[in-house]
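Internal tracking record. Fields below are filled automatically when a chain is submitted to the structure queue. Please do not edit lines marked as system-generated. If the sequence contains nonstandard residues, flag them in the REMARKS field before resubmitting.
Queue: standard
Priority: normal
Entity type: single polypeptide chain
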Amino acid sequence: MKTKLYHPDAFSNRRFLISLSVFVAGIILAAFASSGSSHAAGRSPRIKSAAGVPRSPTATRGLPAGGQNFWVQTNGPQGGDGIALATNSSGHVFVGTQGGGVFRSTDNAETWTAVNNGLTDTNVRALAINSTGHIFGGTWSSGVFRSTDNGDSWTPVNNGLDSPSVRSLAINSGGDVFAGTFYGGVYRSTDNGENWTLLNTGQAGPYVPALAINASGHVFAATWDIKFCTGIFRSTDNGDSWIEINNGLTNLGILSFAINENGDVFAGGDVDGLCGNGRVFRSTNNGDSWQLVQNGLNTGNGINGLLATSGGALFAGSYGDGVFRSTDNGDNWTQVNTGLTEDRVITFTVNPDGDIFAGTYVGGGVFRSSDNGDTWIEKNNGLVATDVRAIASKFDGTVFAGTYGIGAFRSSDSGQRWEQINNGLFAHFVRSLAIGPNGHIFAGADFVDGLGGVFRSTDNGDSWTDVSQGVIEFDVRALAINSNGYIFAGTYVGGTIGGVWRSTDDGESWTHVNNGENCGLIWSLAINSQDHIFAGTSGCGDGVYRSTDNGDNWELANNGLTSTDVAGLAVSPNGHIFAATYTFMGKGGGIFRSTDNGDSWTEHDTGLTTLDVNTVVPNSRGDMFAGTAAGAFRSTNDGNNWSDISGGLVPVSGNVWALAIGSGNYAFAGTAGGGVFRSVQSTIPVRVVPSPRARPTPAPRP
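SYSTEM-GENERATED OUTPUT FOLLOWS
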């Protein structure tokens, strides 16, 4: 399925990603699962002698003990979704990300440091700073957090805030804080966030993506409701009452505001056709009437960010065409994208020196311009907030990461350094990675903006070739390679046009192998030692298919598999097959095991605190590792019991999309907004045998 992503909420709902449902205006109702989890320290197994008697304790190394974190964050891949930006009076820049929390730069964005102490929700959608330097962060599902020490620590301040999804923040000259929520209206705090009051916004739509306050203290609220398309409301009495001010607006789906030094108000509209047409509107009379001003603003995408600088320039961030600038109060616009490698721009801020910062989506991170927008430079050093959907590792320790938005990365030193490796990899929404017996690397990607399919690298990722162009034109969610080097690609598209494709010549040509497969929505693949292939489906109720003849024919292998959305499949060293599944409407999900080659399945969820499981992988000893929507888990007894090994993840209950076991049995985890994590130690304990003591030489007898 070819997908066009056009709104910053497009990736927020994992169920949306499974079903690929067409959403309206990009408004998705749920974010990555964030249920709490507690860290259970791994314990070394008791070692028994041949007679079954426990041996004397032997020192081991390899598994965390005594509360030590299981994971440590690597240094990349760098980037992330820069959803919210703010600058304080000292010029310190803060960026709120999707999944990575808040990052701070004290050197003009040359370097970034995560500042998340106390921030339990790392999906930060809005930032605002008051005159005393207190920072307020609006989160996806946990309301508002406040920092009074420049971001070093955060405290939730939600008393009276009954709508926990905060999308916009604004602060007036008196220090009153206003919060726009997702389908909950506008709240106000008059005591620095300690208490909140729901305001009467008249007929305003409940979703408030933008707020702005002018020099007179008048508050402007952008409302968005696909059913009613309610437009803009204004309050001249600090939010106590509101009036609709839509005269002249031809697009009532407003996403952003900016107010210049003259008090002119600018409003950015969503994509055409949802709630009307028009990109940018200007009001010179405090919102009483609006005029469309978009000459030269050649984009059909929504304007998610607006900025008015003290020098009189206006900047508009579009979701797909980058940045536009106006130097004549909006009458004319020019596209200014030199150096801007990500064109989904959703937020701006400016420092006291006039440097402009642009936050981008789908992994692009932050860009800075020091010449009024003429040129832009990517500034992501230390900003590790990427969405990593695929992980693969070679025996030499090289690790590959596939991100959802900025392509592939490689690390040759266990994650200390990452380099982007997109030469020829034009599809940047990578969903699967596989390495063949000959060392060739294959990447499967979703079709976004017309690019996707299967890509191959024969030089360790230095360059890539599209090996499925014109043949596979659907999202490739799974890849697997058998002992003969035959490559299998699972595509995600309904009906018989989807399903599995096979290549017997290193990807040079592909054959559609779908006989007996009635569901083309393939989400996962695994191959056992006999080269039997297992394909996990999602969205059609079929569960798992099996092929014992190299993919020529398929049969259902679902006996006992009560959850049929199969996100991950793995085969342990003893040949047992594990299926990671999702819940649907709050039911089902969890991990299933088959000990008879898929003929029957039993559920094994003991110890799991969430049943939305993304992936499952074994290490060389057969310990199983599961990545879930709320952290990571390990089983050392063939899946019978699971223990939480989420300690060290950011957040601890974060979404783990992908897992891989690398050289030395170290584990690597790809996360939603935290980049790649590595296990602190090897997942297999190494016995440390004490060196024998030399016997003292007896003294000779006289």
